[in-house]
Amino acid sequence: MDRGDVLEKLASRRFDLLVIGGGIVGAGIAEAATAHGLDVALVDKGDFGGATSSASSKLIHGGLRYLSLGDVGLVREAHHERRLLMRVVAPHLVRRLPFLFPLYEDGPYRPWFVQSGIVIYSTLARAKLNGLVELGRARRMVPELRGTGLRSCALYEDAWTNDGRLTLANVRAAAERGATVLNYAEVTTIRAGEGAEVIADGRTVTVRARSVVNAAGPWVDRIRRLEDADAKPSMRLSKGAHVLVDGGQDWSAALTIPHDKVRVSFAVPWEGMLLLGTTDTLHDGEPETVAVTDEDVEQILAEAAVAVDGIGPVRATYCGLRVLPGGGGGTANARRETVFSTGPSGMVSVAGGKLTTYRRIALDALDHLGVKRLSRGPRPLPGATGLERITWPVELDAAARAHLIHLYGSLAPEVLAPAVDDPTLLEPLVAGRPDLKAQALYARTHEWAVSDEDVLRRRTTAWLAGRRLPV
Ligand SMILES: Cc1cc2nc3c(=O)[nH]c(=O)nc-3n(C[C@H](O)[C@H](O)[C@H](O)COP(=O)(O)OP(=O)(O)OC[C@H]3O[C@@H](n4cnc5c(N)ncnc54)[C@H](O)[C@@H]3O)c2cc1C
Fold it and tell me: What DSSP designation does 417 have?
């Protein structure tokens, strides 16, 4: 993976498709396009998955909230995608998770309303779990569930993921089928009908391509203006912040905490920590100015405390930007739909959508590009098959093996292979986290990691050690 060689390739070939942006949408489009036989170039101005696609709530879900907004079609489609991701596409990365929906005396909902909503949701999910759960069982599932004023608890099912690694798995799938991929490669100019200029490692190259897709997430309008200086804004941005605290290890369910008739927040056991959030506030500035504020953290902790007792110390925070269709109204009840547009030189722009439905978005993008569909069927991502037949090259305890299988699936032995000759690679990457030094090496040799942050934050879970992180 010599970056100079990749740049040479980008400069010398004429591609069928140039994808701008290596978040889940761009990576998913590259995966789908290569599966349809296209010669693809994929570039990202930062790290793959380094923007919104590693800053989500990490849920692969139908979206209970969208049901209350009357978006039954979106919920059904998202549940369908959730099932495919869990069963075929990435069973190691997308895991089933029960959710409790606690109903307090002073809460915004009546139990019958929530119960009927969850019955509809679970029917759309084709899940057996639904309805009210006995409070003793709820407390066994979530030991820190606040009991004061708790009237009842509903139960339903969704799934969680590691969003950064799901994105990376799509980049890798595309690369394994021949895509030319480069992170830290910024598109600065669109050349009508020809391709785009890309700056990477101090060099400017022209990437020639028959078609161009703009999957730049919060930057989608900036790229549209590179093609057409007069392009009108197509979307609004809404900030969502999250907080990671100690805890959650003995939770067997997540919490969906209602705050009013539209907004909920989550408390999710995630990678051995408790993930709390999120906020939803209009962001007026440039995407790169988004940051977690003290007020965000206070709001998240206060909202979590509605249903969680004894919240542990904050270890890490992050935030991202939702891309919402333009127009007025509150951000919380804006539709989470995907908007496609085609510019004057034929560039297709994709804005909005969800992590959960990325595969559908990618297929729709192929339609907009006029690519003849070969199949809608799901394809396993690298590492997704052979999970039950893994042969380990070194000895590891069960917890370490489970962690590696979750992150790499059946590629875990490849990650450990260099440790056969160098056992120091089996040492922890940082204190207090299950990641190994072998993962840091693999991140640089096989996963396009350039900086320490790429390794610690998106290839491994080391950053979750937060303030204890030695960087
Ligand atoms: C707070 C929050 C919580 C969410 N929670 C969930 C959830 O739980 N479940 C769910 O399904 N969805 C969730 N979502 C939605 C989901 O995260 C997004 O829909 C998805 O990540 C968007 O991916 P993307 O590829 O469009 O954007 P991004 O991930 O932002 O990718 C765009 C990429 O384009 C690159 N780029 C920009 N300009 C250029 C340029 N000039 N040249 C090259 N590259 C460029 C950027 O560097 C970036 O990596 C959440 C979103 C937010 C904000």
Answer: G
- Own/partner long-range contacts of 423-432 (Cβ < 8 Å, ≥24 apart): 423/394, 426/394, 426/396, 429/456, 429/460, 429/462, 430/456, 430/462, 430/465, 430/468, 430/469, 430/470, 431/465, 431/468, 431/470, 432/465, 432/468
- For the stretch 454-465, pLDDT in tens is 999 999 999 987
Does the global pTM surpass 0.90? Answer: yes
Q: 243: helix, coil or strand?
A: strand
7 touches 13 (CB < 8 A): no
Contacts of 19 (CB under 8 A, 6+ apart): 26, 29, 30, 33, 40, 41, 42, 43, 213, 215
Ligand 1, CB cutoff 6 Å, lining residues: 20-26, 43-46, 50-53, 55-59, 186-187, 215-219, 223, 240, 278, 320-322, 353-356
How far is the centre of ligand 1, averaged over its atoms, from the C-alpha of 321 (Å)? 7
Distance from residue 206's CA to the centre of ligand 1 (Å): 25
Domains and CATH numbers, the chain: 3-52+164-234+335-369 (3.50.50.60), 59-161+236-325 (3.30.9.10), 387-468 (no CATH)
Task: Tell me how far the alpha carbon of residue 151 lies from the centroid of ligand 1, in angstroms.
Answer: 38
Q: Which helix (H) or strand (E) holds 255?
A: strand 254-258
Ligand 1 centre and the CA of 140: distance in Å?
A: 35
Write out pLDDT tens, residues 28-52.
999 999 999 999 999 999 999 999 9
In this structure, what DSSP letter does residue 453 have?
Answer: H
CB 124 within 8 A of CB 79: yes
